[in-house]
Design goal:
By secondary structure, the chain is an all-alpha fold. It has one domain. The protein contains seven helices and no strands. It starts with a helix and ends with a helix.
């Protein structure tokens, strides 16, 4: 039963646990936003950003051990997404989500990063891949929950 933990290196384990937390914290942000809890959104956001540290350590280790190029590219997108989030939301405080010209590329980068987490997890071990994928589906459920009122309102208006 615990062989899932012993079949992987410590760096791989740190990665997959960070990937699950990555998705779950974003889910928590969505739920906190839905309930108008800005302090909780900020706490979850800071915890999410702190995942950049273990992910960066795993990335550096992956460079050292010579992981496949596609894994390095996915790491690049994940780290770029986290840096962009740090700058836009926490340093520059830019309200970019209401501007489609800025928000659409941001969303594309976000999903590339999310799929990168899944892809790298499957490369580590299929079981971990499915676990990270499950946490991604929870993230999507949280996103639907966040926007459910808008979705149903548009459906009632016939749009």
């Amino acid at each position: 039963m615990f062989s899932i933990f012993t079949r992987v290196s410590i760096f791989d384990l740190v990665f997959v646990l960070s990937a699950v937390l990555f998705n779950l914290l974003i889910t928590g942000i969505f739920i906190a936003q839905k309930h108008g809890r800005p302090k909780l959104v900020k706490i979850f956001g800071i915890l999410w950003l702190s995942l950049g540290i273990p992910l960066l350590i795993v990335f550096i280790n992956s460079l050292i051990v010579g992981r496949e190029l596609w894994i390095m590219v996915y790491f690049g997108f994940i780290i770029l997404y986290m840096i962009l989030e740090l700058f836009l939301d926490y340093i520059l405080h830019i309200e970019f989500r209401s501007k489609p010209l800025l928000h659409v590329p941001y969303i594309i980068l976000e999903y590339i990063a999310l799929f990168g987490l899944i892809g790298i997890s499957f490369a580590i071990d299929p079981i971990w891949g499915y676990i990270v994928t499950s946490s991604f589906w929870l993230l999507l459920a949280g996103l639907i929950y966040l926007y459910w009122d808008r979705i149903t309102k548009k459906m009632r208006r016939g749009r």
